[in-house]
């Protein structure tokens, strides 16, 4: 009994196994690259500038994403309107778009020739330019605001309805209610959201370059690419990727420390009704935030869809085959990722999990290639490797979504389970998984969508007969078929979003949110 | 069975030739072309590749020095390149030149020379590729280097305010251009052929500069450790044969390396060709590369 209780709260053989698998899959490739290189390389003069720019843009991007997410998530948490569920789901879509597609969508809105400038011209106002560090941050906010909003919204929804009743019956002012209920929740959730977005932005490459406007916007990831691609200097690539990894883990540690603190305790799962924010000003402000966020996130998506429609018929059979491959990969990656994430949904586990997105995709791919090559033909392993890597890369997001709820469930029901003498299986089946249903659905949806859209690692393994959809988009673009590429990108958007919708919906059955 | 590692886009195109029985080999495999050489270097002598298809001149020196490639034994006399080519290891199969592409409906009077481009008003916007992540980006930097020599950095400084942005690869740049984001895009003299042949669109043109255009060529080579040397030789000889050369122009949107202009596909015969073709040998390019990229970086970082 006692040992089982320990197992529930403090990690088990499964947790150790899952953690070791992450470590092996991230440190292993770095070690393989290092061994092959015969030691660390040297940093070049441009590398320090790249490091500074990388840090600066990642801090600004993560800060802006989380700061803007607070009012948006709050507005969504306390307003009920028709289509709210659909809006919340749709607003998540930018996060799952392939980078190049999203950038072209953003440029269709904010570029020289975009909607925003057309409107400014019509009003006789000076034109804006998206190219520069502000464009990089804008794009990163576009990608990551949806994630931040969803993470915070989940925090709001996890406050038991009874707490809101209590504050209402105590007659607390909105400000007092914010202080006793909402601020503590934000302090618990926001640092983790900041950290995970910071880490994503650390390895930004194509976005930073395309919208940054030139070499001033050089990131560490570009330096790594250059080291592998041009100089074949694997030692330097390894060194840069370890620096990147260390930065990410530092951010993770800081976030863990800041985000400590306990949840709100158990409730009866009533639908939370809110008695605050009924004033006209509050309603107006909430409405404004929702409209602004929806406009910012959905207009570029609409442009992607518009650009893609004429191309849907021009894609050719290769694209449909690639789509089928992508769906298969996404489903298996999702199962793998969730099975991986459940035992790791603890503080330490979340830190370990960050390594998956912190490691340069290029170094990860090169290292895996070096490890696999002596034993098997990488082409034969293209899809299995893609599945594992997708699961690894999605793991930090799944953990960020699952961990706060998983800990709360353990804290709130662990003693009860102990008193009842539940077996491990019964605990999972009767308590843990049902109570995690909502975050599990969200995490699975996100993983499926990310796995559909991800390309990063597999280029070295790429097999012409088993291309995935993102690879197909790049191929079509590379052979001048921009319209067909736009069509394939729209198909990718629809599939990613469809997968996300189905899983996320599954997690929200019976929930009025 | 012959294993060919090839640039991505090529593979789908030689399917028809294979079906016609022109190659008695089954070609397998690909890699996205910028990673072709790193992949071979990673594999070393254990590679399964017999032939590599899709190398560029920026990596031939490194590839040659790796000792992983063997002479091709192909007669070079059918070559129709604008420069002399006598390399016994790397065999060209198609080529092009760096060029800025513009849309005649948007830019009625493009700059008539490189100098004129540098002096053009700053609201003429161009997109280029990063020389640190893209082959065409590196060719651009070498182009400016070969036109302006010691003045390359000053030339980049003049160009800097006109550069709307720099992208990771060619596809992103070209996508921005076709979306109407920029007036000109750094691409190839052969790019208009795609629009003429596939879209019957004659509004995309290459601006031809009297200072000359940098030569870009794609190459195949035989892997030294091949266990199919005869098949590999046959394959390489086939790449210079007429059936392959007639196919490669529209397959890869490039000029065939061994086909007289009269036999080019119709759309290609219309293309404007530069009078002056610039090219650095691999040793010259290797010696200049770092400084040329650094000059680019300094000028654009100000």
UniProtKB/TrEMBL annotation, chain A:
The keyword Magnesium does not apply. InterPro entries: MetI-like, MetI-like_sf. PROSITE patterns: ABC_TM1 (PS50928). SUPFAM superfamilies: MetI-like. Keywords: Cell membrane, Membrane, Transmembrane, Transmembrane helix, Transport. It is found in: Cell membrane. It is a multi-pass membrane protein. The chain crosses the membrane at residues 53-73, 85-110, 130-152, 164-181, 193-213, 234-256, 288-310, 322-345, 351-372, 379-401, 413-433, 440-462, 482-503. It comes from the Bacteria. GO terms for cellular component: plasma membrane. Its main location: membrane. Residues 51-255, 323-503 form the ABC transmembrane type-1 domain. The keyword Cell membrane applies. One of its GO terms (biological process) is transmembrane transport. PANTHER family: MOLYBDENUM TRANSPORT SYSTEM PERMEASE PROTEIN MODB, THIAMINE TRANSPORT SYSTEM PERMEASE PROTEIN THIP. This is Thiamin ABC transporter membrane protein.
UniProtKB/TrEMBL annotation, chain B:
Keywords: Periplasm, Signal, Transport. The keyword Transport applies. It comes from the Bacteria. It holds the Pfam family SBP_bac_1. One of its GO terms (cellular component) is outer membrane-bounded periplasmic space. GO terms for molecular function: thiamine binding; thiamine pyrophosphate binding. It is found in: Periplasm. InterPro entries: SBP, ThiB-like. GO terms for biological process: thiamine transport. Belongs to the bacterial solute-binding protein 1 family. NCBIfam families: sfuA. This is ABC thiamine transporter, periplasmic substrate-binding protein.
């Amino acid at each position: 009994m006692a040992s089982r209780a320990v197992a529930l709260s403090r990690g088990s053989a499964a947790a150790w196994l899952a953690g070791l698998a992450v470590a092996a899959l991230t440190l292993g490739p770095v070690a393989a690259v290092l061994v092959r290189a015969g030691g660390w390389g040297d940093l070049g003069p441009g590398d320090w500038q790249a490091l500074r720019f990388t840090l600066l843009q990642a801090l600004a991007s993560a800060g802006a994403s989380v700061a803007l997410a607070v009012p948006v998530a709050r507005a969504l948490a306390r307003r009920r309107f028709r289509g709210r569920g659909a809006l919340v789901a749709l607003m998540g879509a930018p996060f799952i778009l392939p980078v190049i597609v999203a950038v072209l969508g953003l440029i269709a809105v904010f570029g020289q020739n975009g909607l925003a400038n057309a409107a400014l011209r019509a009003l006789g106002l000076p034109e804006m330019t998206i190219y520069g560090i502000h464009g990089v941050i804008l794009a990163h906010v576009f990608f990551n605001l949806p994630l931040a909003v969803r993470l915070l919204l989940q925090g709001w929804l996890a406050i038991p309805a009874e707490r809101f009743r209590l504050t209402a019956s105590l007659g607390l002012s909105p400000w007092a209610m914010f202080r006793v209920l909402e601020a503590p929740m934000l302090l618990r959730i926001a640092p983790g959201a900041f950290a995970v977005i910071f880490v994503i932005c650390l390895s930004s490459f194509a976005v930073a370059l395309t919208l940054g406007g030139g070499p001033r916007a050089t990131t560490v990831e570009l330096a790594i690419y250059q080291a592998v691609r041009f100089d074949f200097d694997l030692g330097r690539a390894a060194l840069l990727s370890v620096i990147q990894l260390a930065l990410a883990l530092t951010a993770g540690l800081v976030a863990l420390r800041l985000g400590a603190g306990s949840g709100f305790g158990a409730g009866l799962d009533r639908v939370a009704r809110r008695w605050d924010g009924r004033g006209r000003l509050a309603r107006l402000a909430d409405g404004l935030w929702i409209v602004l966020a929806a406009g910012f996130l959905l207009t570029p998506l609409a442009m992607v869809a518009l650009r893609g429609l004429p191309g849907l018929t021009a894609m050719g059979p290769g694209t449909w085959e690639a789509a089928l491959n992508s769906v298969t990969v996404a489903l298996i990656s999702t199962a793998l990722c969730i099975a991986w994430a459940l035992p790791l949904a603890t503080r330490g586990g979340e830190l370990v999990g960050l390594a998956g997105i912190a490691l340069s995709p290029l170094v990860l791919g090169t290292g895996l290639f070096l490890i696999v090559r002596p034993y098997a033909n990488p082409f034969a392993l293209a899809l299995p490797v893609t599945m594992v890597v997708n699961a690894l890369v999605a793991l930090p997001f799944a953990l960020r979504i699952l961990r706060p709820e998983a800990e709360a469930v353990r804290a709130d029901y662990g003693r009860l389970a102990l008193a009842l003498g539940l077996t491990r299986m019964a605990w999972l089946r009767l308590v843990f998984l049902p109570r995690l249903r909502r975050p599990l659905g969200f995490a699975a949806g996100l993983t499926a969508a990310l796995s559909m859209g991800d390309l990063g690692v597999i280029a070295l393994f790429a097999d012409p007969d088993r291309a995935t959809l993102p690879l197909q988009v790049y191929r079509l673009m590379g052979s001048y078929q921009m319209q067909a590429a736009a069509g394939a990108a729209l198909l990718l958007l629809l599939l990613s979003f469809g997968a996300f919708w189905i899983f996320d919906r599954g997690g929200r059955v019976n929930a009025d949110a | 069975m012959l294993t060919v590692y090839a640039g991505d886009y090529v593979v789908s195109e030689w399917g028809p030739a294979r079906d016609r029985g022109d190659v008695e080999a089954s070609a397998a495999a690909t890699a996205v072309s910028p990673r072709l050489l790193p992949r071979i270097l990673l594999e070393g002598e254990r590679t399964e590749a017999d032939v590599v298809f899709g190398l560029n001149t920026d990596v031939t020196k490194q590839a040659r020095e790796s000792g992983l490639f063997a002479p091709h034994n192909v007669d070079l006399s059918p070559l129709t390149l604008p420069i002399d080519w006598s390399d016994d290891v790397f065999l060209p199969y198609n080529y092009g030149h760096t060029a800025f592409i513009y849309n005649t409906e948007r830019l009625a009077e493009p700059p008539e020379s490189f100098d004129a481009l540098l002096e053009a008003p700053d609201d003429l916007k161009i997109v280029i590729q990063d020389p640190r992540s893209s082959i065409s980006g590196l060719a651009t930097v070498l182009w400016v280097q070969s036109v302006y020599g010691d003045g390359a950095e000053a030339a980049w400084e003049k160009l800097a305010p006109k550069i709307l942005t720099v992208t990771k690869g060619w596809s992103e740049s070209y996508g921005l251009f076709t979306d109407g984001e920029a007036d000109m895009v750094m691409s190839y003299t052969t790019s208009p052929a795609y629009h003429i042949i596939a879209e019957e669109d004659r509004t995309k043109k290459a601006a031809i500069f009297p200072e000359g255009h940098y030569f870009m060529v794609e190459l195949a080579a035989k892997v030294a450790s091949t266990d199919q040397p005869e098949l590999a030789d046959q394959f390489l000889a086939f790449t210079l044969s007429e059936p392959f050369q007639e196919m490669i122009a529209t397959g890869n949107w490039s000029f065939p390396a061994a086909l007289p202009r009269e036999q080019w596909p119709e759309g290609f015969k219309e293309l404007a060709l530069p009078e002056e073709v610039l090219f650095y040998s691999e040793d010259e390019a290797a010696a200049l590369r770092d400084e040329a990229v650094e000059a680019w970086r300094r000028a654009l970082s100000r």
